[in-house]
Write a structure and sequence with these properties.
heterotrimer, A mainly alpha, B alpha+beta, C mainly alpha, A: mainly alpha, MetI-like fold, two-stranded antiparallel ribbon, 2 strands, about 75% helix, flat, B: alpha+beta, Rossmann fold, OB fold (Dihydrolipoamide Acetyltransferase, E2P), 2 domains, six-stranded mixed beta sheet, five-stranded antiparallel beta sheet, 9 helices, about 30% strand, globular, binds adenosine-5'-triphosphate, binds magnesium ion
């Protein structure tokens, strides 16, 4: 399909996207890397010169670092576990014959379209508020003392909020994958005498493996970057300061750009390792 | 008018040479068929003629005019694709009229030509439908309609019937032949199908690895294949090729005998063997014979009534006047 | 599921699925309900469900006090503008990669995807600095450009997967029929690609509308869209549940409606075509 003329036209049409994205990626990235090797305090003297790897060392050695790693891992791990397990179950449920399937699907998917600040605020105030929240009403109804969710059980609360937002995504993708399963395969297994459970374990689950991997990778990338949910609820207090939030605080709140940039470089490296796995899968798909 | 000349045309994709230097002339009004094994470059050749690919070197002349650097739209050729390539968002009428619209023809003339083409192709009742609402055969006709309204210098067909079932394929084959007789326009037709090649072509071009093995009328190729490749390629079932002592008797390295040129008998004959499979087609019967000492399998075509079965001993005699002889290089010995 | 399930199983499925569906949807429903209550009913214990005096007061107050329509307008401009700009760049790029692929096409696509993976916080300060330098901080144009960039890879990818489904032979047929590049794109490609383009636009409007890192960090008062508007309800206004609910409902309603149209595209867009 290619003649010289069309190839030239194609290059010209691709160029703007490539050049702009390249600029968008390279310019800030280079700046971050440069800042990370500097002592740079915009409010307290500005650029104070090169310091080598000092920022990298200090970022890792600061008392906030390991707790941040820990809470990041807890949020990412907790949300992944909840959304993948519930997502598989929900996808199977939604794949069953029923009345009003379309409407149920819409109900399940809706949370994904709620902007993060709204969902965080609604959960924080209307559900988790220790005085007027619905959970407080519920606890009092059963004679229990209401819990101050976001301070006493901050981590589970955040995980709950974020899982609620991402469960639709996992469900939708897994449902799409289940529906692409050739029903003749299941019928063949049934003819071979496989029980419903073993059909699930030996046929459905392996078929879903790829979709699950994709869900895990994409969600991990997005979950590592969650920001608004914490910004609106705890502001990083009560052990919910993630790496992203820590870097944000270093850069914009305490205006220690050098230190924050070193953290940013760590985050970029981490994300790239994950992205590599994702791109393997997506790339394989391109060849088909 | 449509005399197409390829002069030392080559084509490479990157380092891979698909078409080595090739010369070919297709006369005005001729029905030329390209045949050859999968991947031998038939489609590539057709697309070079169409202008959908650039030649790497060489020249293509259409009616004496150098068309090598002319864009496809300006070559005055029409192409019918294997997948039909109809515009799914346009009605049949709009599909057929599209090339006319691109040529800036006025509406009345467009309609006149579309209606004419539709009546020729039995599409009049379907003009307002979308391609998605048509059967395979009807889609194929629309694709042909879109090609004929332009009154092109030549038609290019790339395996146009391969997506149709057997019965439809036969019908369309006749329609295309009839169209050719009526329009007397050059047609170049790529196919895998022996029957299409033999029945439709004025001239068959046998290709192997981008190379022309032989060019000639269907009967030329059938009667006098120039080499072993063509001998094995043209004819169905394939010619039996026998090497060794039996060939030496005829002063050849290899001899070829077509299945239909062997007579069978239960009692005596020049060769004998055991029937492995017999295929009864009604009008004909094919015997695949093993243990002849000549070749792995000898295929024989006999009358539909002849009844040997698996395991029967069978005697065979080739017709002496139609034995093809080939030398060590596989070339025909005259 | 080739076989008809027994009615009994279908009833159980239906009941169970609806229960789960309503449970998941509940926070949204509760927010919408609360937005029609008075502040007193909103915090009543035990909670009041449907039987209260429905009122539109909250919507009026929210609009008056915080100028909802200004934030809405900012959201529309930023989401619409970034999508429009992005499409201008993405359509030609996707066209060229889908129909004139080269050896590098795959690498370019994957590289584009990798820019999407860049953690925003890693480049927060440089962008912040650039914005200050060019006077883009708290402007709609600045935010539009940033959101265009962060969604550009998704746009190119989605369009690419849609364009890929258009058989190249059809475009070649158009070329044989005498169409030039312009006619080919105008009369053949675009009409066939409209559904794909529409889905891409839809998904990207949604993503831009809900984006809450850059919108929170790069705006103050002038250019703040709805995400920032809601965040400003954090406290103490957040304790006025009815008003918070009204504001929230207004912020999510447009996108909920758009979102319901785009379920299928969502999967394709967010998995970069890896799941269809
Ligand atoms: N765009 C391309 N890039 C690289 N190689 C190509 C390209 N198009 C075709 N080829 C190669 O050129 C050779 C000839 O291809 P072509 O499609 O012409 O074969 P064909 O004879 O039409 O086969 P078939 O009967 O299967 O349609 C093949 O080996 C093919 O792999
Ligand atoms: Mg071919």
């Amino acid at each position: 399909m290619a003649t010289k003329a069309s190839r030239t036209a194609a290059r010209l049409m691709l160029a703007p996207a490539v050049i702009l994205l390249l600029g968008w990626m390279m310019v800030p990235l280079t700046m971050t890397v440069i800042f990370s090797f500097k002592r740079y305090l915009p409010m307290r003297g500005g650029d104070l010169g090169w310091v080598g790897f000092e920022n990298y060392v200090r970022f890792v050695n600061s008392s906030a670092f390991w707790p941040a790693v820990q809470s990041t891992l807890m949020i990412v791990g907790g949300v992944l576990l909840i959304t993948v397990v519930l997502g598989v179950l929900l996808a199977i449920l939604l794949d069953q014959p029923m009345w009003g399937q379309g409407i149920v699907r819409i109900l399940v998917i809706a949370p994904f379209f709620v902007m993060p600040t709204v969902s965080a605020l609604v959960w924080k105030n209307m559900f988790m508020d220790p005085v007027n929240g619905l959970f407080a009403h519920l606890w009092r109804f059963f004679g229990a003392t209401p819990v101050s969710w976001l301070s006493e059980a901050s981590m589970p609360s955040i995980i709950l909020i974020v899982s609620w937002q991402w469960l639709p995504f996992a469900t939708l993708i897994l449902l799409t994958a289940i529906q692409s399963l050739d029903s003749e395969q299941l019928e063949a297994a049934e003819m071979d005498g496989a029980s419903p459970l073993s059909r699930f374990i030996y046929i459905t689950l392996p078929h879903l493996a790829r979709a699950i991997t994709i869900v895990v990778l994409i969600q991990t990338i997005f979950l590592l970057a969650i920001f608004a949910e914490i910004f609106v609820t705890t502001q990083g207090a009560f052990g919910t300061r993630t790496l992203t939030y820590l870097i944000f605080q270093r850069v914009l709140e305490s205006q220690n750009v050098g230190l924050g940039s070193a953290g940013g470089v760590y985050a970029i490296i981490l994300a790239n390792i994950l992205a590599l796995f994702l791109m393997r899968i997506v790339g394989k798909n391109l060849d088909r | 008018m449509g005399r197409i000349v390829l002069d030392q045309v080559t084509k490479s994709f990157g380092d891979v040479t698909v078409i080595p230097p090739l010369d070919l002339t297709i006369e005005d009004g001729e029905f030329a068929v390209f045949v050859g094994p999968s991947g031998c470059g038939k489609s590539t050749l057709l697309r070079l003629i169409a202008g959908l690919e650039d030649v790497t070197s060489g020249a293509i002349r259409i009616d004496g005019q150098d068309a090598t650097d002319i864009v496809p739209a300006k070559r005055g050729l029409a192409m019918v694709f294997q997948s039909y390539a109809l515009y799914p968002h346009m009605s049949v009428r709009k599909n057929i009229a599209f090339p006319l619209r691109m040529a800036g023809m006025d509406r009345a003339e467009q309609d006149r030509r579309v209606d004419l083409a539709a009546s020729v192709l039995n599409l009049t009742d379907y003009l307002e439908r979308r391609p998605g609402q048509l059967s395979g055969g009807q889609r194929q006709r629309v694709a042909i309609g879109r090609a004929i309204v332009r009154e092109p210098a030549a038609f290019l067909f790339d395996e146009p019937l391969s997506n149709l079932d057997a019965a439809l394929r036969m019908g369309m084959r006749l329609e295309i032949s009839e169209l050719h007789k009526r329009l007397e326009t050059t047609m170049i037709y790529v196919t895998h199908d022996q029957v299409e090649a033999m029945t439709m072509a004025d001239k068959i071009v046998v290709l192997r690895a981008g190379h022309i093995e032989q060019v000639g009328s269907p009967l030329d190729l059938y009667r006098a294949p120039r080499n072993l490749f063509v001998a094995g390629f043209i004819g169905s079932p394939k010619m039996n090729l026998i090497a060794g002592a039996e060939a030496a008797k005829h002063d050849a390295h290899t001899i070829g005998v077509r299945p239909e040129h062997i007579t069978v008998s239960a009692t005596d004959g020049e060769w004998s063997g055991v029937v492995a499979v017999s295929e009864h087609l009604g009008s004909d019967t094919f015997f695949h014979v093993h243990d002849t000492g000549l070749a792995d399998t000898i295929t024989v075509r006999a009358d539909g009534e002849v009844g040997f079965r698996h395991g029967d001993r069978i005697h065979m005699t080739p017709r002496a006047d139609v034995i093809h002889r080939f030398d060590e290089q596989g070339l025909r010995i005259a | 599921m080739a076989r008809a399930a027994t009615t009994q199983r279908k009833i159980i499925n239906t009941a169970f699925a609806w229960m789960v569906g309503l449970l998941i949807f509940f926070p949204i429903m509760w927010t919408i309900l609360t937005s029609f209550k008075t502040e007193a009913t909103a915090i009543a214990d035990p909670p009041v469900w449907f039987f209260f005096d429905w009122t539109l007061d909250n919507y009026r107050v929210v609009q008056e006090r915080s100028d909802y329509s200004r934030f809405l307008w900012n959201s529309i401009i930023i989401a619409g503008g970034s999508t429009f700009l992005g499409m201008l760049i993405a359509i030609p790029a996707a066209w060229s990669m889908a129909f004139v692929p080269s050896k590098r096409t795959k690498d370019i696509l994957l590289w584009m995807l990798s820019t999407k993976m860049l953690p925003a916080v890693g480049v927060l300060y440089p962008i912040y600095l650039i914005f200050i330098k060019f006077g883009l901080l708290d402007t709609r144009i600045g935010l539009t450009i940033v959101l265009m960039f962060i969604n550009l890879p998704i746009m190119v990818w989605m369009l690419y997967t849609y364009f890929k489904e258009i058989p190249g032979e059809i475009l070649e047929a158009a070329r044989m029929d005498g169409a030039g590049l312009r006619e080919e794109i105008l009369y053949v490609l675009t009409p066939m690609a409209i559904p794909g383009i529409a889905s891409t636009v839809l998904l990207n409007v949604i993503l831009a509308w809900n984006e809450a890192f850059w919108t929170l960090n790069l705006t103050a008062a002038k250019a703040a869209p709805l995400t920032a508007f809601i965040a400003s309800y954090s406290s103490p206004e957040g304790l006025f549940y009815a008003k918070l609910s009204a504001a929230s409902t207004m912020a999510i309603a447009p996108i909920l409606i758009l979102g319901w149209f785009s379920q299928k595209q969502l999967v394709r867009g967010l998995t970069f075509g890896a799941v269809k």
